[in-house]
Amino acid sequence: MRRRILIIGVLAALLSATYLLWFRDSALVAVEKVTVTGATGRDAERIRTALEGAGRQMTTLHVDERRLAEAALAFPAVRTIEVSADFPSGLSVQVIEHRPAALVTAGGRQVLVAGDGSVLPGQSAQGSVPEVELEGKVAGDRLAPGPALDAVRVAGAAPSPLLGKLEDVRRDGEEGIVATLEDGPRLIFGDTDRIAAKWAAAARVLTDKDAAGAEYVDLRIPERPAAGGLPVETLAPVAPAGAAEPLADPGSEAGEPLAETPPVEPAAPATPPEQVAPADPVPVPVEPAPEAPPATGGGAGAYPQP
Q: Rounded distance, CA 97 to CA 79, Å?
């Protein structure tokens, strides 16, 4: 039994060594056909050429995805790739490009930019994207840190249904980054912290019927978004809380207030009496004051409803 176990172990080791050192890198499983999909724009042909060249140096049993990613990510339009081997000699590479987030205007030139600031030359947007103004010019493959990059990051995080409705995104004084919706309110983001949470709060407010007609939505505290500029309804004036209610006229119908009493002229000041010695106090019976008639309409503190 021990001999059999030893023989089986030796054979397994030999097979593993043969696979690792020869078969998986042999010409029997070499990649002969590389299929690249998803590449668009001006650099599409160059992306396909780079991936095909890298893929043909591999085998279907030994695919170096890191090497393929390095070849693809050399192009700013590529965000990531997905690789799958088709034994014995096929390789498929799916290119996932950046989504255009904004149209940056600088020095009379317009270029599409991704949400991370990557410049997308030759790319085309599937729908409408907001405009972002950049002071100076676009240099290199990515936007430099600054107000334009912050605005692009906000636009890039927008949900797809809202991205198509954005007109522009810019930094606006003390309010920070402000996004303007087509036929909608201004969305005040402030800074670029917690952009995803702010967009989620914006979506909740925009779908709330009570916020319809708002001029702006303040998202700087995403847990407490505030919609401003809503139309104010005209309300009938009411008495302040705790004000006494006019008493009803006993001779009139229930609920009708007493007629207004004409003002009484103030009496002339009485002549001060002569000083006399105080007399001994004499108890005088005092009759209790008559109770006031009950107020109608809810008692003390109530007021007539409009």
A: 5
